[in-house]
Design brief:
The chain is mainly beta. It has one domain. The chain is 7% helix and 40% strand. Strands 5, 12, 13, 14, 16 and 17 form a six-stranded mixed β-sheet that branches. Strands 6-7-8 form a three-stranded antiparallel β-sheet, with no helix packed on it. The chain has a three-stranded antiparallel β-sheet with strand order 9-11-15, with no helix packed on it. The termini are far apart.
Amino acid sequence: MAGHRSDPGGAGMRVATSRIMTALGCGVAVFAALAATSPELPARGSPAAPSGSGDCFPVGLTWICLYNGNGPGGPGSGGSAKYTCTYTPVSQAILQRTGTGPPQPGYQWDIMTCPGSNPGSLGGQLVQVSKKTGAPAISPFDLLKIAMADLSVPALPAATAPPRGKDGLVGLPEWFWVPRGQWRRVSITVAAGPVWADAAAIPTRLSYAPGGGLGAVSCTGPGAAFRSGAPAGRQRTNCSYTYDSPSVGQPGNTFHAALIVTWTISWTGSGGAGGVITNGYTTATGLAVRVAQAEALVTTP
């Protein structure tokens, strides 16, 4: 995993930036001061986790946060989205109020704004911009923080056989899967001039927590859909669970089960930056499963 670079623009400068981020889904405003750090400084253990900022993962001397958790999704929930940041020169009055000193020679202070579903969290960042090339003195890692603030990892729809609302039977497998059209990569790319970062979430594993204090089972991939028109004996899946007792006696006479999707969240950026942020992020869908005891019918001639 690439760390936070102290010289993102290649101009030998230390760039201080400030921004206001709104925690999506949490409804919490998080004020963050981001400062470039020297790559020569060794890591001194994991930094303290920010409070009220969603799911955060320690990376070097800072944290990467996924703010909206298991929400239904923003632009990233349907596939991918790309935001191109723009710059507006900053007035001297604003620089004086914020206590910002003069830029390095050949640079000017601009306010960088990155459009998205949550403009308040993606805008208002002071950056130094080259007067000659128009390139911002910012690192891909800084843009990754912005991309993660708008990345939405959806709770994927659950499918089962027997279908939801229909009783299962003790001793017969309950199939579970996610429709293949929903099992896909979601991502957000943020570009600022030649600098860019892409944050992506890829579903990797499906788990079924049967409820009732029973142990979960897992399978790789989205599982196989049950084909109602095909003979059951000719269908196979690695994603199923077999109950050995009925749901009678459980709260509401149902097993409170859950379908859990495990995601790998990673990133890539300009200049070869990138790495895995976490391979254990999860979303879940709750299921109420009613399981009946199969009754044998015996007749005498």
